[in-house]
């Protein structure tokens, strides 16, 4: 098992990516602490993990609330004896944020993803790092998407937000590396099986004057593998990056774009 006896906190665990990663971490032996704004979807993931023989606990935590994040991290560290892995997969509603030309976008809607993602990733990473420095070990995983690097139309402030998170990842890696802590970003392309991407592709398709299916086919055709990544692939790579098998990797991005981006 890649993560045997590790304690992992997953924010946004009730979502598609967060839930998939939580299941993968648990399958690899980690004790997972699931956090999110609303309990029912997190509880559902926790029960599924427990039914499969894993160990999971759920807690209502708003990743934008500094006090709530710090309190939860403190409780987890005290109860489990430390935090080994932190992964933030929170999301925001996409309607009104994507699918609109920049020249028609309000300053508030442009700034929303930037302020949300950067604040949440910073707060959760900082909380984990404060506990990890005591043990001089740990892995912090951030999450972005291909518009961090691609010149993509109609993404509003999402591209700027993800680029900022990747810059934050590098800065955290530089500061935390001497303490034995690795920081790595996971960057998939769109994952069609998720409700978020179905919504986003619908918005982009409308803006481009085509159907959602036509837009997805277009996006698939722009990758080297002629397909888009799956939830299982993203979750499996996250588990690997969090494990000692990737112990030489920090300050970098795991490119899961199926070749829409080439490093």
Summarize this structure as a short list of keywords or feature phrases.
15% strand, 8 helices, 7-stranded parallel sheet, Rossmann fold, globular, 263 residues, 7 strands, alpha/beta
Concise overview:
With 263 residues, the chain is α/β, with parallel strands linked by helices. The protein is built from 8 helices and 7 strands, in the order βαβαβαβαβαβαααβ. It has helices at 16-27, 39-51, 66-80, 107-135, 158-176, 195-208, 212-221, 231-242, and strands spanning 7-11, 31-36, 55-60, 85-88, 138-143, 181-188, 252-256.
Instruction: Note poorly predicted spans.
Output: none
Second CATH tier, the architecture: 3-Layer(aba) Sandwich
Provide the CATH topology: Rossmann fold
Number of E-type strands? 7
Evaluate the radius of gyration: 18 Å
Helix content: 40-55%
**Structural class, from secondary structure content?**
alpha/beta
Shape: globular
Q: Could you name the CATH class?
A: Alpha Beta
How is the main sheet built? 7 strands, parallel
Total domains, how many?
1
What do the pLDDT scores average to?
96
Order of helices and strands: EHEHEHEHEHEHHHE
CA(first)-CA(last) distance: 30 Å
The CATH superfamily is NAD(P)-binding Rossmann-like Domain
H/I helix tally: 8
Taken as a percent bin, the fraction of beta residues is: 15-25%
Strand order of the largest sheet: 3-2-1-4-5-6-7
